[in-house]
Design the sequence.
């Protein structure tokens, strides 16, 4: 598959993947759109265990229930999950007062719910701290759900969470509403498996902080998508460090219509594979968007196409680590300033190593700049004999 074909395919993929996001776009938050099946609310004025019947209005939560751990007071309460839940319809956690509400999973019990909202209710604070058990989310996880709220999900230890399946994809929102903030932290040896769309900074501010564990997004047979800074005015950041591993198949967009930043100071980031080499990385997808990838340490293995500055501003800042685009047997492509209004910059410095097996277009239709102040830049080797570099590829384009 040639460079032109790769980019054409990637654009079709991008358009098709936007639809799942728009399904929830009209809803300001999950909290305000819960359809009550049976309403079970936490009423105990303090911390206790999930299994306490008297802690709940309406009794213990049952299958298909809408469950609320919601309050408006100064108490910071923790609900400890000491039983595995049935398949709930929804779980909503937040405190709109000066206190906060937290669900604690440090025991080997599982949470099963179609949807989860953390930080539900204006100015609320809600958290889930999971270090054990296996959680299953069938539809939506929204962290920092309501306006001006703060939500946190911490997945660590031996915990695991599954969002959607290959046949039934689901959605993750970090910073779902205006002025909200949502943070997902992945640490230790924990595992997060996601199928569908991850929206890091949807309307508000979203942060995915991975210093350990494994994050699998999609699979070789079921592509998925990650967007950082989705809507105008939003901001999304992914931080990868330590021994963290991110394995993704599909499309990653850093700066969709807002501001996106991917910061890698360690770990391994694979997008696609030699067997499935049609993935796409966008930095600065749409007009007025801005996307930056900063690689200071660790390894990025990319199979498909990298578009640095599609219609917006894209910057790849590599001061260390190893960036492999393609492999000795699989050709891939890099486009700086893909569209006429796009601006793309690659800055290579320090001890960084960039290995490109395929095509580099520095200024495809817009203005592209490749600046090397240090490091090593290798273009082509092995069985990939068609490697090439273009400066100012199309009429009106500029490349340096």
Sequence:
């Amino acid at each position: 598959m040639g460079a032109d074909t790769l980019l054409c395919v990637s654009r079709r993929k991008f358009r098709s993947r936007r639809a799942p996001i728009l399904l929830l776009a009209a809803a300001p938050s999950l909290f305000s759109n819960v359809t009550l099946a049976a309403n079970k609310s936490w009423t105990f004025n303090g911390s206790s265990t999930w299994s306490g019947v008297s802690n709940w209005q309406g009794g213990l939560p049952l299958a298909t229930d809408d469950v609320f751990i919601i309050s408006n007071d100064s108490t910071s309460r923790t609900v400890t999950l000491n039983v595995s839940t049935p398949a709930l319809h929804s779980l909503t956690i937040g405190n709109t007062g000066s206190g906060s509400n937290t669900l604690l999973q440090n025991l080997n019990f599982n949470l099963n719910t179609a949807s989860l909202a953390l930080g539900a209710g204006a100015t609320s604070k809600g958290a889930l701290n999971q270090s054990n058990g296996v959680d299953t989310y069938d539809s939506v996880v929204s962290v920092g759900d309501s306006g001006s709220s703060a939500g946190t999900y911490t997945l660590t230890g031996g915990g695991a969470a599954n969002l959607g399946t290959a046949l039934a994809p689901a959605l993750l929102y970090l910073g779902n509403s205006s002025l909200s903030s949502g943070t997902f932290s992945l640490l230790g040896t924990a595992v997060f498996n996601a199928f569908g769309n991850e929206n890091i900074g949807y309307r508000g501010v979203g942060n995915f902080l991975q210093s350990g564990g494994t994050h699998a997004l999609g699979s070789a047979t079921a592509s998925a998508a990650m967007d950082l800074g989705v809507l105008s005015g939003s901001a999304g950041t992914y931080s990868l460090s330590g021994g963290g591993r991110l394995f993704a198949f599909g499309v990653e967009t850093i700066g969709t219509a807002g501001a996106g930043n991917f910061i890698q100071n360690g770990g391994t980031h694979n997008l696609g594979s030699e067997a499935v080499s049609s993935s796409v990385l966008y930095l600065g997808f749409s007009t007025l968007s801005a996307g930056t990838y900063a690689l200071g340490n660790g390894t990025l293995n990319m199979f498909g196409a990298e578009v640095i500055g599609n219609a917006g501003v894209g910057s790849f800042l590599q001061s260390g680590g190893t960036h492999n685009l393609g492999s000795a047997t699989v050709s891939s492509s890099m486009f700086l300033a893909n569209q006429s209004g796009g601006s793309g910059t690659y800055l290579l410095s320090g001890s960084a190593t960039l290995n490109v097996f395929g095509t580099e277009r520095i200024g495809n239709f817009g203005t592209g700049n490749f600046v090397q102040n240090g490091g090593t830049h290798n273009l082509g080797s092995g069985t990939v004999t068609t490697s090439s570099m273009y400066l100012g590829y199309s009429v009106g384009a500029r490349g340096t």
